Amino acid sequence: MLNRLGRGLIFIAGSVVGGLALAFLIVALRPELLQREGRARAPSPPPAAPTVAAPPRVTYAEAVQRAAPAVVNVYTARLVTERIAPSLGELFGDYMPRYRQRIERSLGSGVIVDDTGHIVTNQHVIANADSIRVQLADGRVADARIVGRDPDTDLAVLKIDLLPLPVAVLGRSDELKVGDVVLAIGNPVGLSQTVTHGIVSAVSRQQLGIAPLEDFIQTDAPINFGNSGGALVDASGALVGINTAIVAKNIGVEGIGFAIPVNMVRGVLSEIIAHGRVIRGWIGIVPEDLSDERAQQLGLAQPGVLIDNLYVGSPAQQAGLQPGDLLLAIDGVAPHTAQDALGRIASHKPGSTVRLKGLRGGRIFEVQAQVGERPHGP
Q: Is 142 within 8 Å of 162 (Cβ atoms)?
């Protein structure tokens, strides 16, 4: 009995030792089996938390990179002579007026519109300037000469002699809609290449008293001192306007700025390059808007445009028009405002004729006027 028990124990011990030896041998020869086994028994990692997609990045960097190189800083200087106030002692003796001179400097912006060096800016930016210098975005500086001015639209064209030049891409202001994104690029308070952002607030704003012929884009993109003459561009970087004015900043009004539409700029630019000035039609009327109340007194269904005054010897006077006439139509189209009437007449070439329909004393009449050239200011 004991012998059988001893032999059993010896057999079991041998089997255990043999199994361990075999296992050791297998592990030594195939260690990847042990790693695979460990991986099989390792607990599965917890499921990853769901990822939330980041919102798309809204940027106008490409539009700025496209438009900004063509926007320049405009620096003007003029010699100003001032009278010196007399001292207290001079008031009681012989007083000889004395004067002193100083250099008055101003700043603004402009836009390079062709590769020959023409720059569009505002007339009021370079008015009365004795010298004009422009600085490009790449740091180059050049003297500029005036090619022509158009006070009627507050535009001016300069010329510089530098090569090569970045050129603005001209867009289509007639395709702008209220709510479109626009960027204003300029030189506000001397901070060159500053970009502000906003939307088109309104189009075809008139009768603001900024210029005789107005058709402004209104925007809430901040336009500050020094931005005048700079670029208003759309979200693609195309030029849609020339920044011109802000309204009532001195009384705290914000977000009301105006730009001259690029479609008007195109016409002024081509005329100035070709003739040194803009040639517009003129017949010598001074129109004013007719109020609803006055229209009712005259028995009209809607307000219109009244001829308030006439230039003596003008084409309008020679055609028989009189102050107090109501202007009903110009070439068959009813003018909406006094500005609209002036604009329609200005679109005629000097030497052509314009058909005018009016109302005088309850009677409708029609006349034709020979169109002359609109007089230019200094």
A: yes
What pLDDT, on the 0 to 100 scale, is given for residue 241? 96
The two structure tokens encoding residue 213? 């012929």
Distance CA 259, CA 270 (A): 19
This prediction's pTM: 0.74
- Give 347's contacts (C-beta < 8 A, 6+ positions apart): 280, 281
CA-derived radius of gyration, the chain: 39
Structural domains of the chain ordered from first start: 63-159 (2.40.10.10), 173-275 (2.40.10.10), 281-373 (2.30.42.10)
> Please, are residues 98 and 84 in contact by the beta-carbon 8 Å criterion?
yes
Token representation of residue 136: 């490009």
Q: Which of 254, 368, 278 is nearest to 316 (CA)?
A: 368
Rounded to 5 degrees, what angle do the CA atoms 218, 374, 125 make? 45
> How much is the mean pLDDT over the chain?
83
pLDDT tens readout for residues 130-140: 999 999 999 99
Q: Which residues are catalytic?
A: 124, 154, 228
Q: Strand (E) positions, 206-256? A: 216-219, 231-234, 239-246
Helix 2-29 / helix 31-41 crossing angle, nearest 10 deg: 90
